[in-house]
Amino acid sequence: MDRPDAGTGPPVVTAESAQAAPPAGMSRRRRRRLSLGAQYALFAAVVLAVVLLADWPTLRLNFANWGVAKELFPDIITVGLRNTAVYTAVGFGLGLAGGLVVALMRLSSAPPYRWFATAYIETFRGLPLLLIFIFVGVGVPLAFPGTTIPGGAVGQAGLALGLAAAAYMAETIRAGIQAVPRGQMEAARSLGMSHGRAMRSVILPQAFRIIVPPLTNELVLLCKDSSLVLFLGITLEQRELTKFGRDLAGQEGNTTPIIVAGICYLIITIPLSLLARRLEARQRRGQR
């Protein structure tokens, strides 16, 4: 029989020929570089359009008027920034104390404690913070005539912020406690410690090392939420940054005071955010 012509059959691809042949189409790395280049070009085009089309003289006059900004100092620091820091610190302290209690109740073996903690957390996490401020400023005096919250505006603001913060911190603290290995409690109990002492001396210190970063983020949120203090009917000396900026913006007919107040918020929140990120990075390194 005649043998079939070897040249008419399908081509045989060997490992050597596959390696020598150029890849079909564009490589993944090449496509990625082109995609990033297109994104950068689009971003640069948008920035250039904003720079060229914006009315900079009008923006400078209404949002960055140096003459108006100079009139804010030093009161925006000694009054607005100081009060914001005080309201935030008081609210954080009350929220941390309340959150710890609610978290322990949430983990309690007694059903009534768990029911109360669950109801508290779901209620105050679901309510807008503005309603909590109105309840503290208006509802408490109406419900208990003749009753005043100690500390005046600071006490009212701290209580409103603390009630909301406690609900969020309770869940954070509970997660931190449950993240501690169960063997830590068992080892403490085997040494003769009571449950309460083991919780105070062994579990909680480890839990708080875990939850420091999210607690720092909660502090940043409370700093911004302190702007709702204006709904408490505060005096001129009790104004926080947002109220201070709004009042001066109305008097001057210019938006510069609000911009300066926003910069003052950044003076507080940016360092706290950087601290939270550093703590998170340190915690990840410690877990490796």
UniProtKB/TrEMBL annotation:
Membrane spanning stretches: 36-54, 85-105, 126-144, 256-276
Main location: membrane
CDD domains in UniProt: TM_PBP2
Coiled-coil segments: none
InterPro entries: AA_ABC_transptr_permease_3TM, ArtM/GltK/GlnP/TcyL/YhdX-like, MetI-like, MetI-like_sf
Membrane topology: Multi-pass membrane protein
Gene3D superfamilies: MetI-like
Annotated keywords: Amino-acid transport, Cell membrane, Membrane, Transmembrane, Transmembrane helix, Transport
Domain (ABC transmembrane type-1): residue spans on this chain: 81-276
Intracellular or extracellular location(s): Cell membrane
Residue numbers spanned by region Disordered: 1-26
Domain of life: Bacteria
PANTHER family, sorted: L-CYSTINE TRANSPORT SYSTEM PERMEASE PROTEIN TCYL, MEMBRANE COMPONENT OF AMINO ACID ABC TRANSPORTER
Family stated for the protein in its record: Belongs to the binding-protein-dependent transport system permease family.
Name of the protein this chain belongs to: Amino acid ABC transporter permease
